[in-house]
Amino acid sequence: MSEKFKGSFTQQEPIPEAGIEAAMAVLRHGRLHRYNTVAVEVAETALLEEEFAAYVGAKYCVALASGGAAMACALRACQVKPGDPVLSNAFTLAPVPGAIASLGARPVFVEVTKDLTIDLDHLEEQAKASGAKVLLLSHMRGHVGDMEALMALCDRLGLRVIEDCAHTMGAKWKGVASGRHGAIGCYSTQTYKHMNSGEGGLLVTDDPELAARAVLLSGSYMLFARHRAAPPAEVFEALKLDVPNVSSRMDNLRAAILRPQIGMLDDRRARWRALYQGMERGLEGVAGVQLIPRPQHEDYVGSSFQFLLPGWEPARVAAFVAGAAARGVELKWFGAADPQGFTSRYAHWRYAAPEVLPQTDRVLAGLIDMRLPLTFAAEDVVQIARIIGQEVGVAASARDLASVAAPAAD
Protein backbone atom coordinates (compact mmCIF):
# COMPACT_ATOMS: atom_id res chain seq x y z
CA MET A 1 0.00 0.00 0.00
CA SER A 2 1.30 3.49 -0.89
CA GLU A 3 2.45 5.65 2.00
CA LYS A 4 0.09 8.41 3.06
CA PHE A 5 0.83 11.75 4.70
CA LYS A 6 -1.13 12.07 7.95
CA GLY A 7 -0.48 15.74 8.78
CA SER A 8 -2.72 18.78 8.33
CA PHE A 9 -2.12 21.51 5.74
CA THR A 10 -4.39 23.92 7.63
CA GLN A 11 -3.21 23.51 11.24
CA GLN A 12 -1.40 26.60 12.45
CA GLU A 13 0.76 26.97 15.54
CA PRO A 14 -1.06 28.04 18.71
CA ILE A 15 -1.27 31.69 19.67
CA PRO A 16 1.75 32.49 21.88
CA GLU A 17 1.09 32.50 25.61
CA ALA A 18 1.80 36.23 25.82
CA GLY A 19 -0.94 36.82 23.25
CA ILE A 20 -3.38 34.59 25.12
CA GLU A 21 -2.67 36.42 28.39
CA ALA A 22 -3.09 39.82 26.74
CA ALA A 23 -6.33 38.69 25.09
CA MET A 24 -7.67 37.43 28.42
CA ALA A 25 -6.91 40.78 30.00
CA VAL A 26 -8.94 42.52 27.28
CA LEU A 27 -11.79 40.07 27.72
CA ARG A 28 -11.77 40.60 31.48
CA HIS A 29 -11.98 44.39 31.30
CA GLY A 30 -14.35 44.25 28.31
CA ARG A 31 -12.96 47.27 26.44
CA LEU A 32 -12.65 45.63 23.03
CA HIS A 33 -13.39 48.74 20.96
CA ARG A 34 -10.15 50.50 20.15
CA TYR A 35 -11.39 53.88 21.43
CA ASN A 36 -12.90 52.48 24.63
CA THR A 37 -10.07 53.26 27.07
CA VAL A 38 -9.84 54.60 30.61
CA ALA A 39 -7.61 57.21 32.25
CA VAL A 40 -4.12 57.10 30.68
CA GLU A 41 -4.62 53.65 29.15
CA VAL A 42 -3.22 53.19 25.63
CA ALA A 43 -5.32 50.88 23.48
CA GLU A 44 -3.80 47.58 22.37
CA THR A 45 -4.63 48.57 18.79
CA ALA A 46 -2.69 51.83 19.04
CA LEU A 47 0.29 49.96 20.47
CA LEU A 48 0.11 47.36 17.72
CA GLU A 49 0.20 50.09 15.08
CA GLU A 50 3.18 51.74 16.73
CA GLU A 51 5.12 48.48 17.07
CA PHE A 52 4.38 47.21 13.57
CA ALA A 53 5.37 50.55 12.04
CA ALA A 54 8.69 50.29 13.87
CA TYR A 55 9.18 46.71 12.65
CA VAL A 56 8.84 47.59 8.97
CA GLY A 57 10.43 51.04 9.29
CA ALA A 58 7.31 53.08 8.48
CA LYS A 59 6.20 56.39 9.95
CA TYR A 60 2.50 55.55 10.11
CA CYS A 61 0.32 52.46 10.53
CA VAL A 62 -3.43 51.80 10.68
CA ALA A 63 -4.92 48.51 11.95
CA LEU A 64 -7.99 47.30 10.08
CA ALA A 65 -10.52 44.48 10.08
CA SER A 66 -8.92 42.45 7.27
CA GLY A 67 -6.29 42.52 4.56
CA GLY A 68 -9.03 43.25 2.03
CA ALA A 69 -10.22 46.17 4.16
CA ALA A 70 -6.64 47.47 4.23
CA MET A 71 -6.43 47.40 0.42
CA ALA A 72 -9.82 49.07 0.00
CA CYS A 73 -8.83 51.70 2.54
CA ALA A 74 -5.54 52.29 0.70
CA LEU A 75 -7.36 52.75 -2.62
CA ARG A 76 -9.80 55.20 -1.04
CA ALA A 77 -6.92 57.06 0.61
CA CYS A 78 -5.40 57.42 -2.87
CA GLN A 79 -8.77 58.89 -3.93
CA VAL A 80 -9.59 56.19 -6.46
CA LYS A 81 -13.10 56.91 -7.74
CA PRO A 82 -15.88 54.78 -9.28
CA GLY A 83 -15.00 53.92 -12.86
CA ASP A 84 -11.27 54.54 -12.42
CA PRO A 85 -8.97 51.88 -13.90
CA VAL A 86 -6.66 50.23 -11.36
CA LEU A 87 -3.86 47.97 -12.51
CA SER A 88 -3.11 44.65 -10.80
CA ASN A 89 -1.23 41.50 -11.70
CA ALA A 90 -3.52 38.76 -13.02
CA PHE A 91 -2.00 36.13 -10.72
CA THR A 92 -3.54 37.01 -7.37
CA LEU A 93 -6.45 36.02 -5.15
CA ALA A 94 -10.02 37.29 -5.20
CA PRO A 95 -9.72 39.94 -2.42
CA VAL A 96 -7.36 42.02 -4.59
CA PRO A 97 -9.72 42.70 -7.52
CA GLY A 98 -12.51 42.60 -4.93
CA ALA A 99 -10.99 45.60 -3.15
CA ILE A 100 -10.87 47.48 -6.45
CA ALA A 101 -14.44 46.55 -7.36
CA SER A 102 -15.69 47.51 -3.89
CA LEU A 103 -15.04 51.14 -4.82
CA GLY A 104 -16.77 50.78 -8.17
CA ALA A 105 -13.36 51.04 -9.82
CA ARG A 106 -12.28 48.83 -12.74
CA PRO A 107 -9.57 46.15 -12.37
CA VAL A 108 -7.13 46.08 -15.28
CA PHE A 109 -5.08 42.89 -15.20
CA VAL A 110 -1.42 42.58 -16.14
CA GLU A 111 0.32 39.43 -17.39
CA VAL A 112 2.40 37.31 -15.02
CA THR A 113 5.79 35.81 -15.86
CA LYS A 114 6.83 32.18 -15.36
CA ASP A 115 8.59 33.41 -12.18
CA LEU A 116 5.10 34.36 -10.87
CA THR A 117 5.82 38.09 -10.79
CA ILE A 118 4.25 40.94 -12.75
CA ASP A 119 5.36 41.37 -16.36
CA LEU A 120 6.87 44.86 -16.55
CA ASP A 121 6.56 45.17 -20.33
CA HIS A 122 2.85 44.38 -20.21
CA LEU A 123 2.45 46.65 -17.19
CA GLU A 124 3.71 49.55 -19.29
CA GLU A 125 1.35 48.63 -22.14
CA GLN A 126 -1.67 48.36 -19.85
CA ALA A 127 -0.85 51.59 -18.02
CA LYS A 128 -0.66 53.54 -21.26
CA ALA A 129 -3.73 51.89 -22.77
CA SER A 130 -5.94 52.29 -19.68
CA GLY A 131 -4.74 55.63 -18.36
CA ALA A 132 -4.56 54.11 -14.85
CA LYS A 133 -2.84 56.10 -12.13
CA VAL A 134 -2.67 53.36 -9.46
CA LEU A 135 -1.10 49.89 -9.39
CA LEU A 136 -2.31 47.49 -6.70
CA LEU A 137 0.68 45.15 -6.80
CA SER A 138 0.11 41.70 -5.35
CA HIS A 139 3.22 39.90 -4.10
CA MET A 140 1.25 36.76 -4.76
CA ARG A 141 2.24 33.65 -2.83
CA GLY A 142 5.30 35.48 -1.53
CA HIS A 143 7.08 36.09 -4.86
CA VAL A 144 8.69 39.54 -4.93
CA GLY A 145 9.85 40.83 -8.30
CA ASP A 146 12.60 43.35 -9.06
CA MET A 147 11.25 46.22 -6.98
CA GLU A 148 13.85 48.73 -8.16
CA ALA A 149 12.94 48.14 -11.81
CA LEU A 150 9.23 48.20 -11.02
CA MET A 151 9.37 51.43 -9.05
CA ALA A 152 11.52 53.11 -11.72
CA LEU A 153 8.92 52.15 -14.33
CA CYS A 154 6.00 53.28 -12.17
CA ASP A 155 7.70 56.58 -11.41
CA ARG A 156 8.19 57.14 -15.13
CA LEU A 157 4.57 56.25 -15.87
CA GLY A 158 3.19 58.33 -12.99
CA LEU A 159 1.74 55.27 -11.24
CA ARG A 160 1.17 55.29 -7.49
CA VAL A 161 1.94 51.83 -6.09
CA ILE A 162 -0.01 50.09 -3.34
CA GLU A 163 1.64 46.83 -2.26
CA ASP A 164 -0.47 43.84 -1.27
CA CYS A 165 1.86 42.09 1.18
CA ALA A 166 -0.57 39.46 2.44
CA HIS A 167 2.03 36.80 1.59
CA THR A 168 5.20 38.80 2.26
CA MET A 169 4.96 40.13 5.80
CA GLY A 170 8.56 39.94 7.04
CA ALA A 171 10.04 39.56 3.55
CA LYS A 172 12.59 41.99 2.09
CA TRP A 173 14.00 43.06 -1.25
CA LYS A 174 17.64 44.15 -0.97
CA GLY A 175 17.11 44.69 2.75
CA VAL A 176 13.99 46.86 2.35
CA ALA A 177 10.87 45.45 3.98
CA SER A 178 8.07 44.35 1.70
CA GLY A 179 5.44 47.08 1.66
CA ARG A 180 7.98 49.89 1.90
CA HIS A 181 8.66 50.52 -1.78
CA GLY A 182 5.27 51.90 -2.79
CA ALA A 183 3.14 54.68 -1.37
CA ILE A 184 1.24 52.24 0.87
CA GLY A 185 1.84 48.70 2.06
CA CYS A 186 -1.07 46.43 3.06
CA TYR A 187 -0.82 43.26 5.15
CA SER A 188 -3.16 40.53 6.33
CA THR A 189 -3.29 38.77 9.69
CA GLN A 190 -5.80 36.14 8.58
CA THR A 191 -5.20 32.68 10.06
CA TYR A 192 -3.07 31.38 7.18
CA LYS A 193 -0.78 34.43 7.08
CA HIS A 194 2.44 35.23 8.96
CA MET A 195 0.76 36.65 12.06
CA ASN A 196 -2.53 35.08 13.09
CA SER A 197 -5.55 36.87 14.55
CA GLY A 198 -8.17 34.98 12.55
CA GLU A 199 -8.86 38.11 10.50
CA GLY A 200 -7.14 41.46 10.45
CA GLY A 201 -5.17 43.90 8.35
CA LEU A 202 -2.47 46.54 8.63
CA LEU A 203 -1.67 49.51 6.41
CA VAL A 204 1.63 51.43 6.48
CA THR A 205 2.84 54.58 4.75
CA ASP A 206 5.24 57.48 5.17
CA ASP A 207 2.83 59.96 3.57
CA PRO A 208 1.04 62.03 6.26
CA GLU A 209 -1.99 62.86 4.12
CA LEU A 210 -2.48 59.24 3.06
CA ALA A 211 -2.11 58.15 6.70
CA ALA A 212 -4.63 60.70 7.93
CA ARG A 213 -7.11 59.73 5.24
CA ALA A 214 -6.68 56.05 6.16
CA VAL A 215 -7.28 56.74 9.86
CA LEU A 216 -10.43 58.73 9.10
CA LEU A 217 -11.65 56.14 6.60
CA SER A 218 -11.08 53.35 9.12
CA GLY A 219 -13.66 54.92 11.40
CA SER A 220 -11.84 57.12 13.88
CA TYR A 221 -14.66 59.69 14.14
CA MET A 222 -12.90 62.65 15.77
CA LEU A 223 -10.75 60.42 18.01
CA PHE A 224 -7.73 60.40 15.71
CA ALA A 225 -5.55 61.92 18.45
CA ARG A 226 -5.64 58.54 20.19
CA HIS A 227 -3.52 57.04 17.43
CA ARG A 228 0.21 56.92 18.11
CA ALA A 229 1.58 55.87 14.69
CA ALA A 230 -0.27 58.72 12.98
CA PRO A 231 0.50 62.22 11.64
CA PRO A 232 -0.01 65.36 13.75
CA ALA A 233 -3.44 66.90 14.40
CA GLU A 234 -3.08 69.66 11.82
CA VAL A 235 -3.03 67.09 9.00
CA PHE A 236 -6.39 65.75 10.20
CA GLU A 237 -7.84 69.21 10.62
CA ALA A 238 -7.56 69.82 6.89
CA LEU A 239 -9.32 66.54 6.04
CA LYS A 240 -11.72 65.57 8.83
CA LEU A 241 -14.86 67.05 7.28
CA ASP A 242 -14.20 65.72 3.78
CA VAL A 243 -13.18 62.08 4.32
CA PRO A 244 -16.01 59.57 4.91
CA ASN A 245 -16.11 57.09 7.79
CA VAL A 246 -15.98 53.60 6.27
CA SER A 247 -15.89 51.66 9.53
CA SER A 248 -13.31 48.89 9.23
CA ARG A 249 -11.30 49.22 12.43
CA MET A 250 -9.41 46.44 14.16
CA ASP A 251 -10.44 45.78 17.76
CA ASN A 252 -8.29 45.52 20.89
CA LEU A 253 -8.78 41.75 21.21
CA ARG A 254 -7.14 40.98 17.90
CA ALA A 255 -4.44 43.59 18.50
CA ALA A 256 -3.61 41.96 21.83
CA ILE A 257 -3.24 38.58 20.11
CA LEU A 258 -0.99 40.08 17.43
CA ARG A 259 1.43 42.26 19.37
CA PRO A 260 3.63 39.40 20.71
CA GLN A 261 3.79 37.91 17.22
CA ILE A 262 5.66 40.88 15.73
CA GLY A 263 8.80 39.83 17.55
CA MET A 264 8.41 36.30 16.18
CA LEU A 265 8.33 37.27 12.50
CA ASP A 266 12.05 36.96 11.79
CA ASP A 267 12.26 33.55 13.41
CA ARG A 268 9.15 32.42 11.54
CA ARG A 269 10.67 33.58 8.26
CA ALA A 270 13.76 31.46 8.92
CA ARG A 271 11.68 28.41 9.84
CA TRP A 272 9.44 28.77 6.78
CA ARG A 273 12.55 29.17 4.63
CA ALA A 274 13.91 25.86 5.94
CA LEU A 275 10.65 24.06 5.05
CA TYR A 276 10.58 25.70 1.62
CA GLN A 277 14.15 24.73 0.85
CA GLY A 278 13.43 21.19 1.99
CA MET A 279 10.64 21.03 -0.60
CA GLU A 280 12.99 22.39 -3.25
CA ARG A 281 15.54 19.69 -2.49
CA GLY A 282 12.88 17.01 -2.56
CA LEU A 283 11.51 18.03 -5.96
CA GLU A 284 14.77 18.91 -7.72
CA GLY A 285 15.27 16.65 -10.69
CA VAL A 286 11.72 15.25 -10.74
CA ALA A 287 10.89 14.88 -14.43
CA GLY A 288 8.02 17.09 -15.50
CA VAL A 289 8.28 19.46 -12.51
CA GLN A 290 9.58 23.01 -12.96
CA LEU A 291 10.57 24.88 -9.79
CA ILE A 292 10.22 28.65 -9.40
CA PRO A 293 13.61 30.42 -9.13
CA ARG A 294 14.09 32.80 -6.21
CA PRO A 295 16.14 35.97 -6.95
CA GLN A 296 19.25 36.43 -4.81
CA HIS A 297 18.03 39.85 -3.63
CA GLU A 298 14.73 38.42 -2.32
CA ASP A 299 14.65 37.58 1.40
CA TYR A 300 11.46 35.59 1.07
CA VAL A 301 8.97 34.05 3.48
CA GLY A 302 8.26 30.58 2.11
CA SER A 303 4.93 29.93 3.80
CA SER A 304 3.62 28.30 0.64
CA PHE A 305 5.27 26.41 -2.20
CA GLN A 306 4.58 26.56 -5.93
CA PHE A 307 5.77 24.56 -8.92
CA LEU A 308 4.83 24.29 -12.58
CA LEU A 309 3.79 21.32 -14.68
CA PRO A 310 4.47 22.91 -18.07
CA GLY A 311 2.71 21.44 -21.06
CA TRP A 312 0.50 19.08 -19.05
CA GLU A 313 -3.03 18.51 -20.31
CA PRO A 314 -5.81 19.56 -17.89
CA ALA A 315 -7.02 15.97 -17.37
CA ARG A 316 -3.52 14.86 -16.45
CA VAL A 317 -3.06 17.70 -13.95
CA ALA A 318 -6.46 16.95 -12.40
CA ALA A 319 -5.56 13.26 -12.07
CA PHE A 320 -2.24 14.18 -10.43
CA VAL A 321 -3.93 16.53 -7.91
CA ALA A 322 -6.52 13.85 -7.10
CA GLY A 323 -3.84 11.19 -6.70
CA ALA A 324 -1.86 13.38 -4.29
CA ALA A 325 -5.03 14.19 -2.32
CA ALA A 326 -5.80 10.48 -1.93
CA ARG A 327 -2.41 10.18 -0.25
CA GLY A 328 -2.99 13.10 2.12
CA VAL A 329 -1.19 15.83 0.15
CA GLU A 330 -3.46 18.84 -0.44
CA LEU A 331 -2.52 20.71 -3.61
CA LYS A 332 -4.28 23.67 -5.23
CA TRP A 333 -4.37 24.02 -9.01
CA PHE A 334 -4.73 27.46 -10.56
CA GLY A 335 -5.62 26.04 -13.96
CA ALA A 336 -8.86 24.36 -12.92
CA ALA A 337 -11.97 25.23 -14.94
CA ASP A 338 -13.92 26.33 -11.86
CA PRO A 339 -12.88 28.04 -8.61
CA GLN A 340 -12.29 25.72 -5.67
CA GLY A 341 -12.24 26.92 -2.05
CA PHE A 342 -9.85 29.86 -1.75
CA THR A 343 -8.38 29.24 -5.21
CA SER A 344 -9.60 31.17 -8.24
CA ARG A 345 -8.00 33.03 -11.13
CA TYR A 346 -8.63 36.16 -13.14
CA ALA A 347 -10.90 34.45 -15.70
CA HIS A 348 -13.32 33.54 -12.89
CA TRP A 349 -13.90 37.18 -11.87
CA ARG A 350 -16.52 38.05 -14.47
CA TYR A 351 -17.49 41.26 -12.66
CA ALA A 352 -14.12 42.63 -13.77
CA ALA A 353 -14.80 41.80 -17.46
CA PRO A 354 -11.21 40.55 -17.85
CA GLU A 355 -9.55 40.38 -21.24
CA VAL A 356 -7.77 37.16 -22.19
CA LEU A 357 -4.13 37.05 -21.09
CA PRO A 358 -2.42 34.24 -23.04
CA GLN A 359 0.89 34.30 -21.17
CA THR A 360 -0.81 34.16 -17.79
CA ASP A 361 -3.10 31.38 -19.00
CA ARG A 362 -0.09 29.28 -20.00
CA VAL A 363 1.52 29.77 -16.60
CA LEU A 364 -1.62 29.12 -14.54
CA ALA A 365 -2.57 26.05 -16.60
CA GLY A 366 0.16 24.09 -14.88
CA LEU A 367 0.60 26.00 -11.62
CA ILE A 368 0.40 23.94 -8.42
CA ASP A 369 0.27 25.58 -5.00
CA MET A 370 0.66 24.14 -1.50
CA ARG A 371 0.62 25.53 2.03
CA LEU A 372 3.62 24.95 4.31
CA PRO A 373 2.35 25.54 7.86
CA LEU A 374 4.93 25.85 10.62
CA THR A 375 3.38 22.80 12.25
CA PHE A 376 5.24 20.76 9.60
CA ALA A 377 8.58 19.22 10.55
CA ALA A 378 11.56 18.72 8.24
CA GLU A 379 10.69 15.04 7.81
CA ASP A 380 7.15 16.02 6.78
CA VAL A 381 8.33 17.98 3.75
CA VAL A 382 10.64 15.10 2.80
CA GLN A 383 7.67 12.74 2.79
CA ILE A 384 5.40 15.21 0.97
CA ALA A 385 8.01 15.78 -1.74
CA ARG A 386 8.46 12.03 -2.11
CA ILE A 387 4.69 11.51 -2.55
CA ILE A 388 4.48 14.35 -5.08
CA GLY A 389 7.37 12.91 -7.06
CA GLN A 390 5.73 9.48 -7.10
CA GLU A 391 2.37 10.87 -8.20
CA VAL A 392 4.02 12.88 -10.97
CA GLY A 393 5.47 9.56 -12.17
CA VAL A 394 2.05 7.88 -11.96
CA ALA A 395 0.50 10.66 -14.06
CA ALA A 396 3.31 10.39 -16.60
CA SER A 397 2.88 6.61 -16.85
CA ALA A 398 -0.87 6.95 -17.35
CA ARG A 399 -0.31 9.43 -20.17
CA ASP A 400 2.25 7.17 -21.84
CA LEU A 401 -0.10 4.16 -21.63
CA ALA A 402 -2.93 6.23 -23.06
CA SER A 403 -0.81 7.36 -25.99
CA VAL A 404 0.25 3.78 -26.74
CA ALA A 405 -3.35 2.55 -26.57
CA ALA A 406 -4.70 5.32 -28.81
CA PRO A 407 -5.20 4.25 -32.45
CA ALA A 408 -2.89 5.83 -34.96
CA ALA A 409 -4.32 8.70 -36.98
CA ASP A 410 -5.12 8.05 -40.65
Give the SSE map.
Elements: H1 17-29, H2 44-56, E1 60-64, H3 67-77, E2 85-89, H4 95-101, E3 106-110, H5 120-130, E4 134-138, H6 147-157, E5 160-164, E6 172-173, E7 176-177, E8 184-188, E9 201-205, H7 208-218, H8 233-237, H9 252-262, H10 265-283, E10 290-291, E11 298-299, E12 304-308, H11 314-326, E13 332-333, H12 358-365, E14 367-371, H13 378-405
Parallel strand pairs: 2-3, 4-5, 5-8
Antiparallel strand pairs: 1-9, 6-7, 6-11, 8-9, 10-12, 12-14, 13-14
Compute the number of helices.
13
The number of domains is: 2
CATH architecture of the largest domain: 3-Layer(aba) Sandwich
Q: What is the H/E order?
A: HHEHEHEHEHEEEEEHHHHEEEHEHEH
Protein described:
With 410 residues, the protein is of the alpha+beta class. The protein folds into two domains: 17-262, Aspartate Aminotransferase, domain 2, CATH 3.40.640.10; 265-404, Aspartate Aminotransferase, domain 1 (Alpha-Beta Complex). Helices cover 39% and strands 13% of the residues. It has helices at residues 17-29, 44-56, 67-77, 95-101, 120-130, 147-157, 208-218, 233-237, 252-262, 265-283, 314-326, 358-365, 378-405; strands at 60-64, 85-89, 106-110, 134-138, 160-164, 172-173, 176-177, 184-188, 201-205, 290-291, 298-299, 304-308, 332-333, 367-371. α4 (95-101) links the parallel β2 (85-89) and β3. It is globular and about 70 Å long. It starts with 16 loop residues before the first helix and ends in a 5-residue tail after the last helix. The mean pLDDT is 96.
Summarize the structure.
This protein has 410 residues and is α+β, with helices and mostly antiparallel strands. Helices cover 39% and strands 13% of the residues. The protein is globular.
